[in-house]
Amino acid sequence: MLESVVASAPVFLLVAVRSFALIMTLPLFSSKNISRIAKVAIAGYMAYMIFPKISLEDGAYAAYKDFITTTGNFNADYIFLLIGETLIGIIIGFYISIIFAAFSTAGQFFAFQMGFAASEVYDSLSQVENPLMGQYLNLTAMLIFLQTNSFQIIFVDALSASFRSLNAFSIVNNTENLMLFMLSALTSLFKDALIIALPLMGTLFLINVTMGILSKAAPQMNLLSEGFPILILTSFFIITALLPYFCDLFMENFEVGFRQLENLFKTLSGGNVP
User: Fold this and answer.
1) CA distance linking residue 41 with residue 25, whole number of Å
2) Backbone φ, ψ for residue 269 (5° rounding)
3) Which of 29, 79, 80, 180 is most deeply packed, by most CB within 10 A?
């Protein structure tokens, strides 16, 4: 196996570059808390397992045959192939990050209403300043992501399918379809975030309206000091009651996201995904 890797080093490097780009953009693995050496090791292991299934004679990599000889030599166009492979890995990892961004965005939607707008902390998973509720939903989604073996689905199924169906020329020839896919993913981000946050946003809005009516009816009542505890306690109660439904919604988002990613592979490859 090592002899074939050395003999076909340019092909192995293409596989390793796409795997490393996916690791660097995938949630949890892209965190700075994970050592760069560990990321390189994981990408190398993934490339080592996938490399035997790659051939310059058939499949998606057959388009690279004119740029890589059987002796392992390559020309200057090989640099652009590396850039294309990097872009494919970034697209896959970025799309998974968009799915998780919906959960953080949902927390941002209702954090202001429940009085936690100023409680932003650095989220090591999303690597941005995130309200506590957004970080809570993000961590919950990550636990569900790990529990449902979704990482194995990405590494074993999605990444292997991308090598069987996509190459750098697929991205160049289908830029319009790729842009439409990314725009639809961003649209789904806000839609899913609004669906998650809507029960809390509606309840907190009714509480705020009620307190406003009471403050007009009885100005002597100090509702400002009592309003925040009521909002916070009510929010935690609703989150606890709806947590099982949130978990089901998170899993559904993951399944829908994987199906859309598979459809992207089919579109970019002309409908040929083995």
Assistant:
1) 16
2) -95, 5
3) 29
Q: Are 178 and 91 in contact (CB under 8 A)?
A: yes
Name the token pair of 254: 């993951």
Which one-letter DSSP state was computed for residue 157?
I
Q: What is the 3-state secondary structure (H, E, C) of the chain?
A: CHHHHHHCHHHHHHHHHHHHHHHHHCCCCCCCCCCHHHHHHHHHHHHHHHHHHCCCCCCHHHHHCCCECCCCCECCCHHHHHHHHHHHHHHHHHHHHHHHHHHHHHHHHHHCCCCCCCCEEEECCCCEEEEHHHHHHHHHHHHHHHHCCHHHHHHHHHHHHHHHHCCHHHHHHCHHHHHHHHHHHHHHHHHHHHHHHHHHHHHHHHHHHHHHHHHHHCCCCCHHHHHHHHHHHHHHHHHHHHHHHHHHHHHHHHHHHHHHHHHHHHHHCCCCCC
147: alpha, beta or left, given left = phi > 0 and alpha = psi -120 to 50?
Answer: alpha
Alpha-carbon gap, residue 138 to 100, rounded angstroms: 7
Q: Are 264 and 181 in contact (CB under 8 A)?
A: yes
Query: CB neighbours of 271 closer than 8 A, spacing ≥ 6?
Result: none
Q: What is the DSSP string of 177-212?
A: HHHHHHHHHHHHHHHHHHHHHHHHHHHHHHHHHHHH
Q: Is the pLDDT of residue 38 over 80?
A: yes
Average pLDDT over residues 124-149: 76
What is the distance between the alpha carbons of residues 41 and 268, in angstroms, rounded to a whole number?
29
- Segment 219-258, tens digit of pLDDT: 666 666 677 788 888 888 888 888 888 888 888 888 888 8
Per DSSP bridges, beta strands 120-123 and 128-131 are: antiparallel
